[in-house]
Amino acid sequence: MIVLREGETSPASQASVTTIGVFDGLHLGHQQVLGEVKALALDRGALSTVVTFDPHPALLFAPESAPLQLGTLDQRLEGFAALGIDQVRILKFDAVLAQESARSFIERVLVSELRVCDVVVGEDFQFGHDREGNVAMLKREGLTHAFSVHPAPIYGGSQRWSSTAVRNALGGGDLFTANALLGRPFTLRGTVVHGDARGGELGYRTANMALESRQQLPGLGIYAGAAHTADATWRPAAISVGTRPQFYDDGAVLVEVHLPGFDADLYHARLDVAFMSRLRGEKVFNTTDELVDQIDHDVAQTLEIFKSFIPESSALLD
Fold first, then answer.
1. Which H/E stretch holds residue 117?
2. Degrees to nearest 5, angle at CA 114 with 112 and 119
3. Helical ranges in the chain per DSSP H
4. What contacts 294, CB < 8 A, 6 or more positions away?
5. Contact of 50 with 18, CB cutoff 8 Å
6. Half-sphere exposure (Cβ direction) of 232: Cα atoms closer than 13 Å
7. What are the helix and strand counts (H, E) for the chain?
8. How would residue 108 be classed by pLDDT, with cut points 50, 70 and 90?
9. Could you tell me the CATH superfamily of domain 2-152?
10. For the chain, first and last CA: distance in Å?
11. Spatial separation of the C-alpha atoms in residues 108 and 99, rounded to whole Å
12. Rounded Cα gap, residues 33 and 90, in angstroms
């Protein structure tokens, strides 16, 4: 897959079928749009192309209310590749881009850089300075620059498939709905850092994850899932997203991952953690022995649930 950043132009001479958006989470609605892009590109002999933004535009306009991210930019790019997209243009969303007119954006990015022959966007898509651009404007400009516009419907019916819906479900602890909207298990990416070794003292060593600052988390609780380790293997993972009320009361939320039967050093390694099922909420136990008994049960459930795990790249292609 070709990835174009600022100052780079496509080495390919082909035209492109292009869609535009953040595509945070690559949920089922996004996958439908990208499927249409791929089908049109195959028919036209063109490159299936995504124009995406980093960071999220809302961080510039309303940082205090900007949505938390469902995944990192690298995860997004890997998802595009898994879905068979040929080319991605990453636009840095800053004050300069925010001031660019919709017509200038069309001429600079779509026509000059990407040689667009078809554009696929949501029927409510808006872009450019003061959101002056929309589907109707794209169609008018298409007559001038010889490209066609294909408005995509709102997918999902009464439960719209959207990044907002995924965030709301995750934040409310509704992992079942979030994963259904994504079409695969929600996956966190982070780096393993040193903790206070409390898990090891209980007989359950954990990997403590450092995440990007604006990462959306599932609701507090204990989860069964899978972790992708440095040896490129998916392993069962019992996951805690919580404040560890048994031992602390500072309110700090941590993501801790126990990998049953795995004892290698993961410090400073990247770890992907897929959330398959919510097992229970946080709880304070009367004794440490009761806590350990519960962890025993959580791990046993995790091992059973992991048997049905499908890696994300395979799930995206289903």
1. strand 116-122
2. 110
3. 28-44, 58-61, 73-82, 95-99, 102-105, 135-145, 163-171, 175-182, 198-201, 288-306, 312-317
4. 283, 285
5. yes
6. 1
7. 11, 12
8. very high
9. HUPs (3.40.50.620)
10. 20
11. 14
12. 18
Structure tokens at 130: 């003061």
Order of strands, sheet of 87-92, starting from the edge strand that comes earlier in the sequence: 2-4, 87-92, 47-54, 16-20, 116-122, 148-152
CATH topology of domain 185-317: Elongation Factor Tu (Ef-tu); domain 3 (2.40.30)
- Conformational region of residue 45, where left means phi above 0, alpha means psi within -120 to 50, and beta covers everything else: left
Cβ-contact 85, 38 below 8 angstroms: yes
Q: How far from the centroid of its chain's Cα atoms is residue 207's Cα?
A: 21
Determine the Cα–Cα distance for residues 4 and 157; give it in Å rounded to an integer.
Answer: 34
In the chain, CATH 3.40.50.620 sits at 2-152
The whole-number pLDDT of residue 313 equals 63
- Two tokens, residue 311: 């890696």
CB neighbour burial string for 182-191, b if at least 16 within 10 angstroms, e if fewer: bbbbbbbbbb
Task: Tell me the pLDDT tens digit for each residue of 243-292.
Answer: 877 776 667 899 999 999 888 888 888 999 999 999 999 888 888 889 88
Q: Is the CB of residue 279 less than 8 Å from the CB of residue 305?
A: no
Q: pTM surpassing 0.85?
A: yes
